[in-house]
C-alpha cells in the first residue's frame, strides 16, 4: 500500500483508505466492534506485517490482517528503480498535506 490511513467514524467499522489510489473511497471496510454501543478508540498499523490492531473503549483488541489484494506493490518500470521505505511514504504524505495547506491559504 502506498499511503494508507484508517478512519473509524462513530460507527463500529474501520475504513481503510490509500491516498495513492483514491482519497474519496475506502479500499475496504470492516466491522470491528460486536456491539454498536462500543466505540473504537485506538488503531495501530504494524510497520512490518500487513496487520492493523484496533482497540475499543471496553478494552477489547481486534487484530485485522489486510487482504493480499490490498498489499500489491506498484510494478517497476523498465530502467527505473522503485524507492521503498518509510522516508518515501513520509515524503508522499508531506506532499499531499502541503497541497491541502496551499488550497486553504488561497481561500
TrEMBL record:
Its main location: other. It is found in: Cell projection, Cilium; Cytoplasm, Cytoskeleton. InterPro entries: Dynein_IC. Keywords: Cell projection, Cytoplasm, Cytoskeleton, Microtubule, Repeat, WD repeat. GO terms for cellular component: cilium; microtubule. PANTHER family: DYNEIN AXONEMAL INTERMEDIATE CHAIN 1, DYNEIN INTERMEDIATE CHAIN. This is Dynein axonemal intermediate chain 1. It comes from Sus scrofa (Pig).
Amino acid at each position: 500500500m502506498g499511503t494508507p490511513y484508517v478512519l473509524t467514524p462513530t460507527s463500529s467499522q474501520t475504513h481503510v483508505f490509500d491516498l495513492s489510489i483514491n482519497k474519496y473511497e475506502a479500499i475496504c471496510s470492516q466491522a470491528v466492534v460486536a456491539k454498536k454501543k462500543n466505540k473504537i478508540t485506538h488503531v495501530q498499523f504494524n510497520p512490518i506485517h500487513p496487520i492493523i490492531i484496533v482497540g475499543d473503549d471496553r478494552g477489547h483488541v481486534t487484530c485485522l490482517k489486510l487482504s493480499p489484494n490490498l498489499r500489491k506493490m506498484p510494478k517497476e518500470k523498465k530502467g527505473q528503480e522503485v524507492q521503498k521505505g518509510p522516508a518515501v511514504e513520509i515524503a508522499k504524505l508531506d506532499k499531499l498535506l502541503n497541497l491541502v495547506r496551499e488550497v486553504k491559504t488561497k481561500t
